[in-house]
Amino acid sequence: MSAINVDLAVNGFITGLFYALMAIGLSLIFGILKIVNFAHGEFYMVGAYAYTLVALAFGVPVWVALPIAFLVGALVGWATERTLMRPLYAGYTSWGLMRDEYAVIVTFGLSLFLINLVDKVIGPYAYRGPPLVETSRVVLGPVLISGHRLLAAGIAIAVILITAALIKWSFWGQQIRAVSQNRLGASLAGIDTAKASAIVFMLSGGLAAFAGALLSPVINASPDVGIFPAVKSYIIVVLGGMGSVPGAIVASLLLGVIESFGAVYLSYQYRDAFGLILLMLFLLFRPQGLFGEKGREV
Amino acid sequence: MTLLSVNGVTKRYGGLTAVDDVSFDIVAGELVGLIGPNGSGKTTLLNILSGLATADAGEILLADIPCQRLTPEQLAHRGVMRMFQLTRVFRRMNVIDNLLVAGRALGLDHGEALTRAHALISELRLDAVAALDAGQLSGGQMKLLEFGVCFMVPPRIALLDEPFAAVHPTMKEIMGAFIRARHAKGQTFILVSHDMPVVVELCPRAICMNAGAVVIDATTREVLNDARVIEAYLGGHAA
Amino acid sequence: MTQPATPAAGAQLTTTKTTVEFRAALVAMAIVALIPLGVGNPYWLGVLIVSMYFAILAGGWNLLAGYTGQFSLAPATFAMIGAYTTGLLGTYYNVPPLLGIVAAVVVSGLVGLLLGRAVLRLVGPYLALTTLSFAEIMRLVASNTIDITRGDLGLGVAGLPIGRLAWYYLFLAVLVVLLILFYLLLRSKAGLFLQAIRDDEVAARRAGVDVVFWKTAAFTLSAAASGLAGALYAHFAELVTPELGLIAQTGLILSMAVIGGMGTLAGPLVAAFLVYVLSEWLRDVGGYQLVVFAALVVIFARFFREGLWGLAKAAVRRWRQA
Ligand SMILES: Nc1ncnc2c1ncn2[C@@H]1O[C@H](COP(=O)(O)OP(=O)(O)OP(=O)(O)O)[C@@H](O)[C@H]1O
Ligand SMILES: [Mg+2]
Hints:
- By secondary structure, chain B is an alpha/beta fold.
- In chain B, 38% of the residues lie in helices and 27% in strands.
- In chain B, strands 6-7-8-3-9-10 form a 6-stranded mixed β-sheet, sandwiched between helices.
- The radius of gyration of chain B is 18 Å and the shape is globular.
- Chain C is globular, with a radius of gyration of 20 Å.
- Chain C contains 15 helices and 2 strands.
- At the A-B interface, loops of A face loops of B.
- Residues 13, 16, 18, 36, 38-44, 85 of chain B line the site of adenosine-5'-triphosphate.
């Protein structure tokens, strides 16, 4: 593999790690509520602002600002679940039919609300977050990379692994998976499904916000900064199979690498279209994603 | 005259054979009970007959014309109407509109559809709730409404999937009377039910399925006294 | 012949409901027609013209999402497709605007037909995501084929030799014609079928409704209406940019339909005016308009699912009872 290809692969992989931070949460939400959260990008945006403002305005050290961003995102996620998601499962039988459209409208509306609120309250200007380290160039064989990006990639790996382990082995992780498989069965088995959903939203909001914070030195915080990563995570949850966390992680890395190579070898202008085209093709011809099995009919 | 002929119909889901080489004929005007323990394949068979699932093997003839490749809407136009085990109505449309949908879709004009809808509403005792959205009806009323939808244009064969399940005795009475009256006028039915007294009362003939296959197809008396049927039901309960 | 039972006679049929809504919408349009008598300010006329653009889009989307239950996130995209159709035809082939507008309707309708066919089996979140991707791909294409579309700079489009007041009545005429068309459609059996599909597709098929045909028809009609709006707007603004297809535009259309009341003929149309005019007015007093509307969307969806139309209906009922 030539030097440039190694560079493309490594950088694509790192981008994929950031995608994974975003997509895991979206996938968990789909798993537990069977909805797509169209406000997911705004969780990311909130994190980018929380990190940047806390660090710049209050002079909080970046290593403290990072977990603060996670907490703020978790709080927004929790509030979203509390105020808007309850009708999806709180015994509104006649909502059964409406739930898909309700979910789209409410999350879409929330997304518009948060974007415009931040635009008015903080302003439309972009803020650059402080990097974790100032080293601008690290040379690793053929790969050139900024110190911040390298460190952020390491942190992302750690967070992804911890999250995956929590979902797999922790008590609440198991509860969440039970609810995702069968909400009714889980509630009959005495699992607090409302609490499981709240936890999923907190985790999802926290992870997305964390991604926003990590990337804010690279992609400056602005009101609509979340749209782009949100679209990426839609693509990923579809490729990985809606609701599957391992699928989302693999698909994230794959998309990162595909885009990295596609931008160079296919078309730079259309680098963002590859994933969208994949999304459409998958939903039309293979809705179960890359790894999923074909579900029951009707 | 044979109206419906089912020949060797089989349906598999993965390793499970939900319907296993099922064959029977139904003559026009018959009212046939279809019984069998939970999971024996009754609903799956009705799904195949109504076009919602495709058989992996076998042939279905409706008045001698093969129809296993037809869609539910095509079958509806050819006179196959089915009621669902889990009631399906148009929840955000009122009772009359629910009936009108079927009437208009099957070719009636507005006036004719409206007249029939009103007649069915009074026959099914839904007058008091006719203005409500179907989503606001009780479970039993929804079943009655679904009955009405199936009979806006009397079908050649009506496939009823457990219409009496979880329904109040009064409503069961209305449904029973409805079925009996139509049957007396020559309507053909397949009636899936777990309610043996009702099957005995309504259906002269019964088919019992177990594990996807037909166990016995005879008069209802014979079927209910058959050792294999008792075995299937007891086995079903024990499992 | 038996007489219909009396209690059932009190039930309001879908057709009656539609007629009531249609009358209300006509009254609203009559008021809109009278506005220029009192308001001569070209700025406000312009605001109202853009409101009518959005009213067409919201009405078209409502046919698809509100009546048929197909939650597409691409209404703004079809407006963009319509706008570029006439813009490109005019620029490269000197096609006159009126012909260009007709072509725009045909092209966007055809694209709608194809997309509608493709997404036939998709529901809920899957449909939303597919149409969202379609929207973004189309926008990326428009903004990146710079040689042809001039990208984000936008494509200059010929205007029409008419004044602002004439534009006003042109838009109004188109809006009213579409309103009548939708009314005739929804009052016929199609209205029953579309709503039946929205409520339960399987039950609709069981009842004999040709679901494939009606779903595709709704998609095509809705796309064609959006394309018409986009093409008209292109000649009015004399400029086409990829911004016409922004997701935020779809957000605005969706807001209007939700606030007005999805699945009602009058609600989205009237709300398009209220939302757009109010937002222009609020712009002068602090610029919180988009925050307010986004909040309203969430609040309406959460607590008043039938929108302003539903609230108005409830108010009338209470007033009659009192
Ligand atoms: N879409 C499907 N995918 C996989 N398995 C299915 C599907 N539909 C039915 N089955 C299986 O086929 C078998 C027969 O099911 P079916 O619903 O036909 O039984 P039934 O006789 O109607 O039972 P009941 O009396 O409980 O309604 C069951 O084991 C069921 O799990
Ligand atoms: Mg069954």
